[in-house]
Each structure stands twice: as C-alpha cells, then as structure tokens.
Specification:
Layout (H helix, E strand, L loop, with lengths): L5 H10 L3 E5 L3 H9 L4 E4 L3 H4 L11 H14 L4 E5 L9 H15 L3 E3 L7 H9 L4 E6 L5 H4 L9 H16 L3 E5 L3 H10 L4 E4 L7 E4 L1 H4 L16 H18 L11
Parallel strand pairs: 1-2, 1-8, 2-3, 3-4, 4-5, 5-6, 6-7, 7-8
Helix pairs in contact: 2-4, 4-5, 5-6, 8-9
The protein binds 3-methyl-2-oxobutanoic acid (KIV) and sodium ion (NA).
The site of 3-methyl-2-oxobutanoic acid has 10 residues, from loops.
Amino acid sequence: SRRITVRDIAAAKARGEKWPMLTAYDALTARIFDEAGIPVLLVGDSAAMVVYGYDSTVPVTLDELIPLTAAVVRGSKRAMVVADLPFGSYQASVEQGLAAATRFLKETGAHAVKLEGGRRVIPQVEAMVAAGIPVMGHLGLTPQSVNVFGGYRVQGRGESGEQLLHDAKALEAAGAFAVVLECVPEDLAQRVTSSLSIPTVGIGAGSGTDAQVLVWQDMAGLVPHTAKFVKKYAAVGDLLGQAAREYAEEVVGGSFPAPEHSYH
Ligand code: KIV
Ligand code: NA
C-alpha cells in the first residue's frame, strides 16, 4: 500500500468526495489516525499550544516542529503528512521560505508544507511549487496573525470576504494544491469552494468545504475549553485523568503491582 498523494487529493475533488484531515504530533497517534483511515495528517504549528504549552502559535520554531513532524512520518504508512511552516520561517523572503520548506521535506520526510496568508505569500508559494514542494494555503483566521486581529474571531465578513476569495484564487493560480479556510462564514467558504478547482479544507467554515480539519486533542476531548466549531468525539481527557487517579490510588494502597505484574 502506498501513501496518499496530491494527485489523490485532486481526484477526490473531481469525484465530489469529502475527506477528513487531523493534526498529529507524535508517532503513536499518527499510527492510530493512519489506521483509522485519515488520509492527510497535519503537523500543525498548533503544537505550540497542545505540545509545548505556549499560549499562541507565534513562539514555536522550525527546530521545535521538525522532530514532531519526523515522528508523524515514521508513525504513519498511508497518510500524506503536511508540515506547518511556523511564524517567522517564511515571511521575510522567498529564500527564507524556500529554505524552511526544504528543511522540512529533507529532515522529516513530510510530503507537503502549509503556510498562512494570501497575496502576501504568493512569491513564496510559487518558489516552493517550482522547487517541487506541494503547498497548502491557509486563509481566514490565520492564528500567526493573532496580534493583528486582536484575538481569535471570525474573519471574512462583509467586504473582507471578497479579499479572501481573491486570496484563494491567487493561491490556486500560484500552484497551491489545497487551502485551509479557518473560522469564516459558511456561505463564504461555500463560495470559495465552488470557485476553486483545488480542495478547500474547512475548520469552523461550515459544511460546504471539500474537506474538514480539527486539532486532534480538541476532537478527542483533551482540551477543556474549545471554540464553537469543535465537536468532541470522545472524552479522552476525563478517561486519562481517571486512569491516572486509579493508578495513583493503587500504588499508594499497595494493590499495584499485583503478582501477575511481577517477575518470579
Ligand atoms: O496548526 C494547526 O493545527 C492548523 C489547523 C487547525 C488547520 O493550522
Ligand atoms: Na497552523
């Protein structure tokens, strides 16, 4: 069995098939999601929060994301792995962005990169695509710009919706193979989706996109407070807390380890 490629992703849109994307940051969860049939795994810069404990994605570095991305590639067999270019690794110049994207592919085995922004990053997208690196765009609520937005709020309402559509078309023309639409009104996401021949991947963008993405810790109920657009498919946080409490109790009470856990 081979990996999912950008050609499979393009074919899915042509057939009108929707597909799921999840984030992953380590080998074990990558294997679980891969075996569950998730075709695309994103090593998001959301690792800043869910792995490293920062309070936004702004501080995380390429050096911090590279080992996580390599682990996700090693843990998966079938999924296409997308590496998220962190804040400060591609904005300064085409050369800087190309160097960062190249490091991701060479040092981790990832199959594509993602970056945030529209027209302002078109030269970077063109250079990466020309160099043989598939690029996923990201528009709407782009968390690396939280300090410009003044918080995490819905983007693309009114006039700025036209700007977003224009940005999406520019990304497609530059050779991007897909574009994430984060936290935008459902009707705008629908309009972008029908205006593009590349797939849209929605998060908080309603049901009209070609694909969906969620941060796995949000989806699995590990994060207590999440945005309205998150559906919790499990209560892994409660389950894990309960397991830790039982383990602690049994160690303190002397019932773990039992004879069957010991070597005789
Ligand atoms: O970093 C991330 O997890 C993301 C997705 C939410 C799209 O960019
Ligand atoms: Na991200």
